[in-house]
Every structure is written in C-alpha cells, then in structure tokens.
Amino acid sequence: MARKTGSHSDITGPKVRDAAMRLFTEHGYAGVSMRQIASEVGVQAGALYLYTPNKQSLLFDLLLEQMRGAVERLKETDLSGPPEKQIEAFVRTHFQFHMGGRQGIFIPYTELRNLTPANYKRLEEMRRIYERELEKIIQAGAQSGAFDAPDSKLSTLVVISILNGVLAWYRPDGRVPLQDVEDHYVSVVKKALSAT
Amino acid sequence: MARKTGSHSDITGPKVRDAAMRLFTEHGYAGVSMRQIASEVGVQAGALYLYTPNKQSLLFDLLLEQMRGAVERLKETDLSGPPEKQIEAFVRTHFQFHMGGRQGIFIPYTELRNLTPANYKRLEEMRRIYERELEKIIQAGAQSGAFDAPDSKLSTLVVISILNGVLAWYRPDGRVPLQDVEDHYVSVVKKALSAT
DNA sequence: AGCGTATATGAACAATTGTTCAGTTCAAGA
DNA sequence: TCTTGAACTGAACAATTGTTCATATACGCT
After folding, report:
1. Same domain membership, residue A113 and residue A43
2. What pTM, to 2 d.p., does this model score?
3. CB contact at 8 A, A27 and B113
4. Range(s) of the domain holding residue B27
C-alpha cells in the first residue's frame, strides 16, 4: 500500500519535523531512531528520506529553524527605553518564543553536541548574534548604573542559562500557569541584574 | 593477554566509573557505547561486566552516588542564621559539590530520562529530599519578609535550575575563575530571592 | 480511461549495539 | 614450584542502527 488518500508531501513533511522535534526534545538525538520517528508519523522508515537527506540534517534543520526564529522574533521586538524595560522585553520575547507555540517542545541546546563540527559552527555563529543583543542591553544597564554587571559577558551567559533553565522543570500539565512562570522569570532576571 | 602488572580490580573499577561519568556527561547516556567506555579504560568491552551488571546499572549507580553525595554534603552544611546567610551557605555547598572535585564532570539530571521507571522513582525521591531543604530555607525567608517568594515550590524549582544552569556554559579552561563564578551565583540567587 | 509521477512500502545492507562466555594469562598462596 | 582463581581477551550472539532501492500504489492530468 502507498499513497493513502489525502496523504501528501505537504502533510507528511511537517509531520516528520514535528515528530522529530518532539522526540529529540524528549529523548535526545542519540536516543531516537529513524524508525521511531517514522512510526510516530505513521510511515515506514524509508519514507523519511523523501524529506531529509539523513538524520543529522534533520536535527540541524530543526535547530537552524529554531535559532532563526529566535533571532527573528528578537529583531521584531522593541528594545528601546531604559535598561529595565529593555531587559523585560527581552525576557518576555525569549520566554514566549521558547515556551509558546508548541508548549515546551523545544530542542535543548545541549543537543548541539550531536552536530557535525561544520554544522555546529554555523549554529554557534547565530547563537552569538542572539546573545550579543542581550549583552548590549546588559552593557547599557551597567554603564547607566541600573545594573550590577561588571562582567557583561558572564552576566549574559548566566541570564541565558537562567531563562533556558525553565525547560528543565516546566511541565505543561503542571500547577503553575505559563503566564505566571513568565512573570516570575521577568522578576527574577530583573532583580538578578539589579544594582544593589 | 590479560592481567597486566599492577592492574587489579581496585584500579579498573574506579577507572570504569570515571570514564563512564566523563562520557555520559559529555555525550549523554544514549550517545555512549560500552565499547567507548572500555576503550577509554584500556580494556575490552566484555571486561566491563566484571564491574557492572549492565549499562543501565552503570548510569544508575553513578547518578545514585551523585545524589547521595549531594544530600550528604548538604547535611554537613551549617544552615543556621538569617535566611540570607542560609541561602548563601546552600548555594556555595551546592555549587562546590557540583563543580568542585572533578571540575564540571557531573552527569546532568537530564539523563534521568534514561533510567528504568523503578530506578527513576528511587532517584526522584532523593531529589525531593534535597530540594525540600532548599524549600525550607525559602519558606523561612518568605515568612520573615526577607525573601519575595509567595510560591515557595516555584521559587525552589527556579533556584535549582538556575544553579544547575552553570553546567550548560561553564568550561574549566574558560576565562572566568571558578571562584568568581561561585560568587556571582551567590549574588544572583540572593538578589533573585530578595524582597523588593 | 489511462498515463505519469509523487509518495510510499518493505526487504535488504553493513555497521554497531549490549551482552555472554569459553578460554587465556598471571600474581599470589601453599 | 605448582595450583588456584581473579582479571581479562576475543570471538560470537541476536537485535537494532542509518540508509538504499526496486517495487507498488493511487492521485492529478490529459
């Protein structure tokens, strides 16, 4: 049997990416087989290769899409005003992009280790661009005296890791509403950066 | 060839655990094969089974040892005095245990997902014990008005994830000395919890 | 109605996986 | 010196891995 009714490339393609995203997020790249992904999609393993040249590309494309999305959203964000307002805007945008949409389905950056050196390098560059934006905010705040951040690079890394930390514990079916979590992180980051 | 001079169980045993620890930390459980571990130890794969019944047990024993160590250290820590002093003591103990010793070689708790349900449950119980100690500190601080933490469970999860976040970016050969990083985290967590 | 092609099957592949085990080696005790 | 047994090898195993490909199907087009 092949080509069931209503089953086209436009349907299966996204299904493959969604399944891979969910499984990579949950079990990690090495812990997921192509057959698991195929089974999730409702297809045989061989069919996946109509949508990706190989497993590595599947991971890379998903991570690239993620990073591109993050940078894009950030560009659309209004990062003007006083440092406190800027950092709040950054935190909310970052949080919403990572947790919003497909709730909590987001391949952790830990999986970067599974990339080819060449692929890794390309993503690493995009990440630097993203973090550079945060660093600029922190630097401005430090200069104006609003923030206590003598080492802006260190503070940037820490803030990013704080924000991504939510993926480690948040469960969509948990007790605390996502909006409350977002507000909490806004408060935490603002205070963590604040001058004493 | 077998049994080289000076090569005993007392030597190889720890070597196996060390290699597994390092590799699991770096590549994740699923991304490491028994043959890789064996090669790191300088032994054939079959020999590993003199020291562990199987791969799953190897991971579980390491994680159990880790959790046990963390709880032990915490019990030895003086958690008296005002909340600010208590939280500082907690942060320093937590940080030193996770980052000290074998610098940054620490299996991330993400790897818990690779455990058998039974094994997972057992570790989860220990983790609750550990986090309960932090929650008590936060609760006391909230009650005294020193901390802004209306939801102590949420704050606990967030603080833990903040602290563990250091594993995501810290490199032993990096620019910032470990002691400075520790001090930075002490400051960040204290401020993040502080009443406004 | 029938052709062409996008979409999928399912079997096969070489490599690698965790694990077992009969056999080998060598240090220490008798 | 000889024996014993702990420590290890190396080959083997069944299962699973990523990937390929000849084949089959059924939809859209004419």
Report:
1. no
2. 0.94
3. yes
4. 7-52
